[in-house]
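User: Modeling request: complex.
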Amino acid sequence: MTSVIEVDGLTKRLGAQRAVDGVSFSVSQGSVFGFLGPNGAGKTTTIRIIVGLIYPDAGSFSLLGEHKSSRLHRVLPRVGSFIEGPGYVPYLSARQNLDRFLAAEGVHRRGRAPLIANALEAVGLEMVMDKPVGRYSLGMRQRLGLAQALLGDRDLYILDEPTNGLDPSGMREVRRLIGELASLGKTVFISTHLLSEAEQICSHVAFMSQGRLIKTGELGELRSGYPQRLRVVGSPIGRLRALMGPSARSEGSSVLVDCDPKDGPQLLKSLLADGIEVSEFSWITPSLEDIFIAEVGEGFDVR
Amino acid sequence: MFVEELKRIFRRPRNLIILGLIALVPILLGVVVRFASHGGPRGGGPAFFAEITQNAIFLPLAALASMETLILPLAASIIAGDSVAGDAANGSLRYLLVRRVSRSRIIHAKIVAALVYTLALSLVIAAVGLGAGSILFPHHQVVTLSGLSISFVHGVIEALLAALVVGASIFSVTMVGIAVSTFTSSSLAATSIAVTVAIASEVLDAIPQLEKIRPILLSNYWSAFINIFRSPVLTGPIYKDLLEQLGWMAVFYLLAVFNFSQRDITA
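Assistant: Request completed. Predicted assembly structure:
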């Protein structure tokens, strides 16, 4: 599959700190790629390099096939970006702010109004489009930032923490928007520290920590590399736990143990044969959070 | 991009208030001289101050002379300091850059727009001063500083020319502000530095022992516009003024363009 973003050995030092340290990954066309990691992991710095806002100290990258920072302007019209929060002139309205971006991009005056209306409608700001942005709430500003990224028809959307500051319904709306973009065959590169959010929308993920890329791959493949967890509810619970082996642990009224799914039927048979009254016997797929903690360790800012 | 930058400047309430307040100065000056001082000002004060009651033409010129030393550099510095730093601070700079707008186009649009605003400041003073002067004072033939008479229309043209020269004399301060603005996300810091440079230049200009360095001080020829009102016009000091402004502008233009093209946009 064609790669829309290729990053190879990217390194960037900000002050004394190595913000990005030899990061390499690739984003396939049509994927929803989750760029995951705690705050300060180097996600935004990597994104800023990819879109040409900052220059790398070492390594290379390509965006939609363009390798040179100085020539990124050739492909940037095909990219919708939302980077580290919204950017706006506070005394201009949402409409005037978006018009400014489109005019700077060279979009003809007559072509701007429908693009602006569509983008503001997509994020639910059409009713307040003429109000100065300085009077917007935090969530409204975040929506305006997303509207800016959605202006026009793009092949790739780079969204850095798009749900920051949004209420639960706003977060659901963003997930729906990303789903719609993916269904249209667009590539979405989304950076977030919210693993539960990423789990719901991403087809591929990369884990970042302290400037380094820890792991990357297709989410299903990553999951298959981790043990499935069996959850059994039955009584008597003491005997049930003893029968399920030394690694089994209780959690409320259930007993959990990591085991191979193909061993499941045999285990169930033996439990029943030993007189255990089994009321639930289910498999728990490892969550993205489980995988992340297994790869990166505890201390992740999970919400 | 240039038009968008002009819109950004002229739609900002603060910038319009600055223009409005600056427009008030020649009106207040005219009213005070006309009604509050019996027989008109006698000597002293900025250039053309003593001549205000003689002809409408002298009101804008006196206003320009009195505002050139502090208010105009301050107003120009506010816009220049905000030019890049303001957009960097509010985040809109990064969204301009990720929309295929080249860094060169952005910085050049910002430079030209800030220079246009600087010219607008002095032209507003001239236009309002001429209007107020025409209401408050006689508007007949003008006696120039050389004692010769010129028509009122000729005088209006020379007053507008003087405003252009005064505006251009502040260009160096504007360019210093823009250059500093490319280094920071703080508009206030960039504005403060540009104003400090202007005031420092005027202070150094006033110290007799520093006569040798005067020709390179950006404020050294700020009063050159007075020579427009000589017959014939004394062009030497005006050319020196413009040449000096060009020199300062060239240095800070290169600094602004170089730094902006190399700088990491982390704000």
